[in-house]
Automatic annotation (TrEMBL):
The keyword Signal applies. It holds the Pfam family FG-GAP_3. It comes from Fusarium phyllophilum. This is Acetylxylan esterase. Keywords: Signal. It comes from the Eukaryota.
Length: 522
């Protein structure tokens, strides 16, 4: 039972939020100096299973200073303390399944580090909740007459995974009466992912619940969310493709091997079902050009739209789509990098293979053969797993990215050889790329400018003119500075700007001194 001193009133003596990323809100009992959790096991009515205390010690603060919120947008709520009227410190819930593992946001060991520090009139009005429906909790301050100021939570550009907070100003005007700070709530009344504004209006013998529907939009994406890099023309070099969130269109900037310049004359016609999380670019047919693969989230069934590039007309179009069945039901998570399926050539035959990544990191796969898919079973925190051919073998190697520093550990792909319960043989080479901390102060300053340019916020989707301008700006600023936009972009950037494909013999790499995007560790 969730009990505590009588003076602790709602909020926050209890909370409902997703503790284990299963899509169901769990029950949090916030006592003095401890938080207990009961997991929602589903059903109608739902059944709850207590797992006991999950965190303790409030550093001298009170239960009323605790906030339960998803700061990094990974689907697992984190533990936060309002240390003062404006300073919020949090520990990240980095566990998997039902077990938490408390981490920091600036570094893995930096537990309860500051993630937000903007002065507010008081502690009591500070609320952490996902106002815009992007699965990242925003900071709101509720004033005395119900007015609300909001800071939108976006992926950060500094070290670690501390968010960048963008002030949205006053988002709710409030009421004509005062003394109602505690009477303003937020909840999903109308069934969207956005939170609606609720006023518990006290009458003589009742409370009236007055609701304002959240009909807002924007603030949920960064420009870089639509970035894809793949060889669309069969040149052996990755082009830069920008795809809209709903898949209704795309823009292309072709790789002409003259960084920071990109070609803008090639036309592309693309219209596939969204959302963008289920859209992949990879060479499915083995003709050297990347096709579009759309994944069904629930079933793992694929629709492959084959690339029909016309070199004479310099235009890219796609056929009507071919269905391909897999039984990968991992779908995708709430973060843009938490993808349950990836497509890379792991056997070196030139065709992208289908990889299914479970939440515990287990990988199973289907080899894409000329006569159909071959289920090869098990191969080897999936959000930090990437694939790229860094060994020049023609086979995609497995990379693990440190989300705090960008350092990369490489597992060399030795091919389709059964080994220890896995269908593919992998050899660990250790850290292949230096972490971002190795930058000089001058280099760090350049990177900060690059990241700021490439992560500019937009409230609506944008096309190639804006996206390409950003890319050209960032490329021209790189020189020989190590670069990390986030825990995946640097790998794609490196492949795109180097301008060659390891699978193709005789590839020419020129001017490499200016393209040291990430310096290999000796």
């Amino acid at each position: 039972m969730c009990t505590g001193p009588k003076q602790i009133e709602i909020p926050p003596s209890y909370a409902f939020a997703d503790f284990n990323n299963d899509g169901l809100d769990d029950f949090f009992c916030i006592k003095e100096d401890a938080v207990w959790v009961s997991l929602n096991r589903g059903g109608n009515p739902p059944k709850f299973e207590s797992i006991g205390q999950v965190i303790g010690g409030f550093d001298g603060l009170k239960a009323t200073d605790v906030r339960i919120a998803d700061i990094d947008g990974d689907g697992r709520v984190d533990f936060c303390l309002v240390k003062s009227a404006g300073e919020i410190a949090c520990s990240r819930n980095g566990g998997w399944a039902d077990k938490p593992q408390w981490q920091g946001f600036s570094t893995v060991k930096g537990i309860r580090g500051t993630v937000f520090n903007t002065a507010q009139p008081d502690k009591a009005g500070i609320v952490l909740a996902d106002l815009n429906g992007d699965f990242r909790s925003d900071v709101m301050y509720i004033g005395d007459h119900g007015q609300v100021s909001t800071w939108v939570n976006n992926r950060g550009s500094g070290s670690g995974i501390v968010p960048k907070w963008r002030s949205a100003g006053q988002t709710h005007a409030g009421q004509a009466v005062t003394g109602i700070q505690d009477s303003i709530k937020f909840g999903r009344i109308y069934g969207s992912n956005r939170l609606d504004y609720i006023f518990l209006k006290e009458e003589k013998d009742r409370f009236d619940v007055v609701v304002w529907q959240n009909q807002g939009a924007g603030g949920t994406k960064l420009k870089a969310d639509g970035n894809y890099y793949c060889d669309m023309r069969g040149t052996g070099s990755d082009d830069y493709v920008w795809i809209y969130q709903d898949g209704h269109g795309a823009e292309i900037n072709v790789n002409n091997h003259s960084p920071p310049a990109w070609g803008h004359n090639t036309k592309i016609e693309l219209k596939v079902p969204g959302p963008r999380n289920g859209i992949h670019l990879a060479d499915w047919t083995g003709d050297g050009r990347c096709d579009v693969i759309v994944q069904n989230k629930a079933t793992g069934h694929l629709t492959v739209y084959k690339n029909q590039y016309d070199k004479g007309a310099d235009s890219i179009s796609f056929d009507s789509g071919t269905s391909v069945a897999t039984d990968c039901n991992q779908g995708w998570g709430v973060g843009i990098f938490d993808l349950g399926m990836r497509f890379h050539d792991i056997d070196g035959d030139g065709r992208a293979d289908a990889l299914c990544i479970e939440k515990n990191g287990r990988i199973t796969g289907w080899l894409n053969k000329a006569n159909g898919l071959e289920n090869v079973g098990q191969i080897k925190d999936r959000a930090n797993i990437r694939f790229a051919d860094v060994e020049a073998s023609g086979r995609a190697d497995l990379l693990h990215v440190d989300k705090y520093t960008g350092a990369v550990d490489d597992f060399t792909n030795n091919g389709h050889k059964a080994q220890g319960g896995s269908s593919f043989s992998l050899t660990k080479r250790g850290m292949l790329y230096n972490p971002i901390e190795s930058l000089s102060p001058e280099g760090a300053s350049k990177v900060a400018k690059v990241v700021e340019a490439s992560s500019e916020m937009v409230d609506s989707e944008v096309g190639s003119s804006t996206s390409s301008d950003v890319l050209e700006t960032t490329s021209s600023m790189l020189d020989s500075v190590s670069f990390r936009r986030d825990a995946s972009s640097f790998i794609r950037y490196k492949a795109a700007l180097l301008g060659y494909n390891h699978r193709r013999s005789g590839a020419n790499v020129t001017n490499t001194s200016k393209l040291a995007i990430l310096a290999p560790r000796n």
